[in-house]
Amino acid sequence: MTTTSRVPVTLVTRAAPGVEVRDLTVVYKTPLGELPALRGVSMIVEPGTITGIVGESGSGKSTLALSLLNAVQPPGRIAGGSVEIDGLGDVLTLGGEELRQARGRHLGYVFQAAQNSLNPLKTVGKQLLDLGRSHGVRDGRALVRDAMSLLERMGLDGARVLDSHQHQLSGGMRQRVGIMLALVLNAHLVILDEPTTALDMITQATILRIVREVHQERGLTTLMVTHDIGVAAEVTDRLAVMYGGRLVEHGPTREVLGAPRHPYTQGLIQAIPRLSGDITQARALPGRPPTLGTLPSAGCVFRERCPRRMDVCETDDPLAVAHGDRSVACHAVELPTPGVRVERATPAARVPSGAEEDHT
């Protein structure tokens, strides 16, 4: 990916941007001191792709997503690394008005709990106009027309929704409002944080269809944070698997799910309940995900739960090694895995603990 120098936000290109994350480290202040929620995360998001970020609760998915907007809030802070986005440069060097204008104009974010991103005291229409004014939109009527068009394409009555407060809308409707607000200023990098959480299956399918259609028609680069492997299998081109604040596997979705190489990715898929066949084939991952206080300071973060643990895992943090179009961070990845048979994930599959909210 070619990294562009930083330019005023009003002059950015409208082509789908690429993203390059380098050695990103995010820490949170705790009674035990500053502990890393992300440590040395590096990845490239190709322009025009949909990339899924999956992992159990506490793996660092949402922290990574917020870092792309330079939006990590205290007690967290970005302690190192860079986030280069085409047309903006390193987002971590932006601040003040420049950063505020980048959010919305260039970077769109759909929050995990849609109701938390809406003001309960204002109608959706008033919040839309506030958004436009804050970004210097002079033609409010055109903004409303664009918003209504987006809402109607998503199967909603645009006029009714804009005249409604959040409590008058269902969860699926609020989620679609969040997508509209993220797109109405023509942002071309869109981040969706658990866009289908707590939605019924029909509404979930509708949201995923909207994501695919809008991504293609508007020429977006999209990142989707999810616990749900089925969601990732349904809509993403590439998949990034996170554990304990590390990126452990990254590559084309079909390859990662069809032939996972990291023991954690294998464990996630093997834990998925089967809809047919021998249901006893599903095996839960042993142990529990680490917390900030239990993350090891050295060695592999997955070693306590890993069936292929070796002595080197105790002392050396595995580096991400490229294998064609994929990367895997595991000391044992080159060794054969006796008896492991991994099936392709089904659309109904979910990561264990998928109902939990990801606070990191």
Structure description:
This protein is of the alpha/beta class and 360 residues long. It folds into two domains: 1-106 and 188-360, 3-Layer(aba) Sandwich (Rossmann fold); 115-186, no CATH class. 29% of the residues lie in helices and 21% in strands. The protein has eleven helices and twelve strands. The chain has helices at 61-67, 96-105, 124-134, 140-153, 158-162, 171-183, 201-218, 229-235, 253-258, 263-270, 312-315, and strands at residues 19-30, 33-45, 50-54, 76-85, 89-90, 107-110, 189-193, 221-225, 238-243, 246-252, 321-323, 326-328. Strands 6-7-8-3-9-10-12-11 form an eight-stranded mixed beta sheet, with helices on both faces. A four-stranded antiparallel beta sheet has the order 2-1-4-5, with helices on one face. α3 (124-134) packs across α4 (140-153). The two termini are 28 Å apart. The model is unreliable at 1-13 and 336-360 (pLDDT under 50).
Brief rundown of the structure:
One of its GO terms (molecular function) is ATP hydrolysis activity. With 360 residues, this protein is α/β, with parallel strands linked by helices.
Features:
360 residues; alpha/beta; Rossmann fold; 2 domains; 8-stranded mixed sheet; 4-stranded antiparallel sheet; 12 strands; 29% helix; disordered C terminus; Oligopep_ABC_C; ATP-binding; ABC_Ni/Peptide_Import; cell membrane; transport
What's the CATH topology label of the largest domain?
A: Rossmann fold
CATH architectural group of the largest domain? 3-Layer(aba) Sandwich
State the fourth-level CATH superfamily of the largest domain. P-loop containing nucleotide triphosphate hydrolases
> pLDDT below 50 for ≥5 consecutive residues: which ranges?
1-13, 336-360
Number of helices: 11
What portion of residues belong to β-strands? 15-25%
* Largest sheet report: 8 strands, mixed
Distance between the termini: 28 Å
Structural class: alpha/beta
Query: Care to count the β-strands?
Result: 12
The domain tally reads 2
Radius of gyration: 21 Å
Helix proportion range: 25-40%
Element-by-element helix/strand order: EEEHEEHEHHHHEHEHEEHHHEE
Name the overall outline.
Answer: globular
For the record, the CATH class of the largest domain is: Alpha Beta
User: If strands are numbered along the chain, what order do they take across the biggest sheet?
Assistant: 6-7-8-3-9-10-12-11
**Average pLDDT number:** 85
